[in-house]
What we know:
Elements: H1 11-23, H2 30-43, E1 47-51, H3 54-64, E2 72-76, H4 82-89, E3 93-97, H5 108-114, E4 119-122, H6 134-144, E5 147-151, E6 159-160, E7 163-164, E8 171-175, E9 188-192, H7 195-205, H8 228-259, E10 274-275, E11 281-284, H9 288-297, E12 303-304, H10 326-334, E13 335-338, H11 346-359
Parallel strand pairs: 2-3, 2-4, 4-5, 5-8
Antiparallel strand pairs: 1-9, 6-7, 6-10, 8-9, 11-13, 12-13
Helix pairs in contact: 1-8, 2-8, 3-4, 3-7, 8-11
This protein binds pyridoxal-5'-phosphate.
Amino acid sequence: VIPQIGPWIDDSELAMLREVCASTYLTEHNLTSRFEAEIRALTGAKHAIAMSNGTVALYCAFRAMGVEQGDEVLVPDLTFIATSNAVMMAGGRPVFVDVDHETFCMDPDAAARAITPRTRGVCPVHLYGVSAQLDALTELCRDHDIWMVEDAAQAIGVRWKGRHVGTFGRAGILSFYGNKTITTGEGGVVLTDDDELARTCYRLKNHGRDAKGLFVHEHVGFNFSFTEMQAAVGIAQLAKLPRIIARKAEIRRDYETGFRSIRQIALPVVPQDVSPVFWFTSIIVPEAAPLASFLAERDIQTRRFFLPLHLQPCYQAKGLDLATRPSSLWAYEHGLSLPSSYQLTDDQQGEVIGAIRDYFGAATG
Ligand SMILES: Cc1ncc(COP(=O)(O)O)c(C=O)c1O
């Protein structure tokens, strides 16, 4: 089987993990601080707060923004469901905004139309290796006096006009789930330049207190701690990040070349202001479902685009606006992510390209 995605793990992670085990510090300690410092250096954010996963990082960011019952937060209709669930966990109400047809990220015009007197914030998601239109969204927030929290779960390394995504809003988050560009197994980080927000996020993940070892709790908080094992793997992964990004760009280029003569295939557009990281290479085809089945029969794993939020079974009958978002639905029907791991071999990629050429009846070669 050719996997759609997998992490690149080798002796460098093992060596770091051995160090952690020998140190006997398994919960948050020096390596977690080092991992956070390396994330700050990479992104340029003033604060990076490591957490158990990206979903709780989003939850803490929304809570820190003061989301309350009935507050509306705009999220793109095409995203992993954690984006909108985190709004709900914080007590808010997600409002699903259609995406643009080229990048499949939140459409700023649709966002403007979705604003009501109850809108408190916008949570753009930087999807499939590119970035949402951050200039237009920043302007929208300024015009309507609302905040932005960026879901950059998939977007480590992605830049908008040279600046790392996740640092444009009041806060942003990254995820280090196993299928991400780099992983810590589970893991997430809140990015922010705001000292007070950073303190609130830290408290929320640390039982409501400013440091470990205190047992008088001024605030209600939870336990979303990171571990030294995660930090160890993350530090080793960060050292590989430039190589992973370069290899993923090569993979995308080779797919592009392989499909050049197939008129039924298009690749998502990379806007001029974006330095992408091709976490996944995705293609746009007339019908994603039958192609995915055809490839599965040849032991080639692919991944469909997200089912739009307005169609999620768990969101029916919740009083949310479930009107069709046409571009999001279009992306779901036409988008397919191909095998894109760092470790994908040239032979495997050739097999994927060959199978897709067969499917479309294109001449091989
Ligand atoms: C867009 C998006 N948001 C949020 C998450 C949640 O992150 P985590 O799995 O670390 O909780 C993910 C991925 O897993 C994601 O792709």
